[in-house]
Amino acid sequence: MAMPERDSGIRCGFTASSLIIQKLNATEILVPTQLWSSETNNESMLMKVSQGTADICGGVLRIMHSRVQKLDYAMSIWPFHVGFTYLAERESSNNMFVAPFTTSVQTNWEDLEYLKRKKMNAKFYQNIQTGVKMIRDGQVAYHTEFNQLYPHLSSFTDDQLCKLQFIDTVPERVNIYDIAPVLVLTLMAVVLSLIILLIEYSVAKFTKQRKKESEE
Fold first, then answer.
1. Residue 77: inside a domain, yes or no?
2. How far apart are CA 71 and CA 136, in angstroms?
């Protein structure tokens, strides 16, 4: 997690663990640990849970393939970010990897169908070790989940780390601003339905009154 989010993430994870313990009517015994996920000794939260000396984590461990084989995740709290990672000169304002995402690039259905067929060849999908090497060599933007990628960036030089760029392709979550137009349309529909209801009620009442007067 980013530093501003770390404290809130820990509190959220601890609260979730407390709710699970309460639901199971179990006794809460806190086991302090010095590390998060180190496997060099038995003092990390990951090792205590995977070895059975603790039953549940009170914090947050991001989901990784190697950890799924050792842990069962009750809920996903760690942010999920998917996108492209590549090396680029920071002073470059005209990057070839960013260009396809600009509004000036026009794409038709024929191009999309061609790309769909082309991407299914055997060499299109690469494992993360190969992807990291392709990023380090340059000229390739590798698409993966960022949390899975970060541990593999230790082989990069400081200069390469400074040149790393990221493009998100799948948002982590939908916020209020993303659905604001839908909420506005829904509210307008509710107001319009109430207006129509009042008009129909008024017309029915007026018609009934006129009919009663004509009968008299």
1. no
2. 31
Nearest CA-CA partner of 10 in 54, 61, 50: 61
Beta strands in the chain (DSSP E): 82-87, 142-145, 164-170
State whether 160 and 181 are in the same domain. no
Same domain? For 162 and 210 the reply is no
- Taking the whole predicted model, whether its pTM rises above 0.85 is answered as no
Distance CA 43, CA 10 (A): 18
Q: Which domain holds residue 198?
A: 176-216
Picking from 68, 91, 113, the residue at the C-terminal end of a domain is: 68
Each residue's pLDDT expressed in tens, for the chain with a length of 216 residues: 444 445 666 777 788 888 888 888 989 888 888 887 777 777 788 888 888 888 888 777 777 777 878 888 877 666 667 889 998 876 555 566 666 666 666 767 676 676 666 666 656 778 888 999 999 988 788 998 887 888 888 889 888 988 898 888 876 566 677 778 888 999 999 999 999 999 999 998 888 888 877 776
Question: Within this chain, do residues 142 and 197 fall inside the same structural domain, yes or no?
Answer: no
Longest CA span, the chain: 98
Which DSSP category does 44 fall into?
A: B
Looking at the DSSP assignment, which residues form a beta bridge with residue 35? 44
Dist CA 172 CA 181 (whole Å): 19
